[in-house]
Model the fold of this input.
Amino acid sequence: MQSQAILGMIDADWLVVDHYALDDLWERQVSPLVGKVMAIDDLADRKHHVDVLLDQNLGRSNIDYEGLLPKYCIRLIGPRYALLRPEFSGARECSLHRRRKAGLGRILISMGGMDTPNTTSSILKSLQHSDLPSELNLDVIMGSAAPGLDEVRYLSEISRFNTSVSTDVRNMAERMCLADLSIGAAGSTSWERCVLGLPSIAVALAHNQSAILEALHSAGAAEKLGYPFDELDLIDAVNRFHKEPETLEAMTERASRVCDGKGVDRVLEWLNVKK
Done:
């Protein structure tokens, strides 16, 4: 095994595994070559042979991993352990303070770097038919290799809103702080939005995002859309946020309780304990 050959040449205290194709059979082979092993998972659908298991998803519980982990394995479960860049926790206080006087003037649209199904274009087309005022600002963020980027740029040019399209941004926390509402995928960026109390309309674009979306909706931290989403559902949601700004403030409060952005520190504390 290539991994065994590489691990045999280094003296690693920890091996962190994050891959759906790896399970306890692979982990048993490499564990003698390192100090400890931590696995990152969010499906709870296979066994692991590790010292620490991290599942940062909302709605997940220790019970979901019963029979899948060694008895000695430490389970770090929930968004309080979400691995986020420090820029989000650093911007949390300012972002939450700004949202005390809720209003809808700027929407952040980010469906992931690639957005292979080009959901962004569908969203832009739908918003054209909403009751939102034309002076509204739309901040669209995509990856530079996204297949639908050209269409999105064209739609932004003909949009009745003040629409900007940015690629490969490095200041996502700042963009989220400036936004009053987000329309985005229900992936790991959900925890970034929650840290900053950013109200959101979320869509599950992948199988492993469905449970996240349901949990966020149940917690009142996001409005959910089906996929493929119905245009009228999106229009109804944005119209409601515009006409009832108090719903934005309420969602900020609920979302901010989901995650505080200090997950990295908490995980590192456990790794140091087990070292």
User: Anything to note?
Assistant: The mean pLDDT is 95.
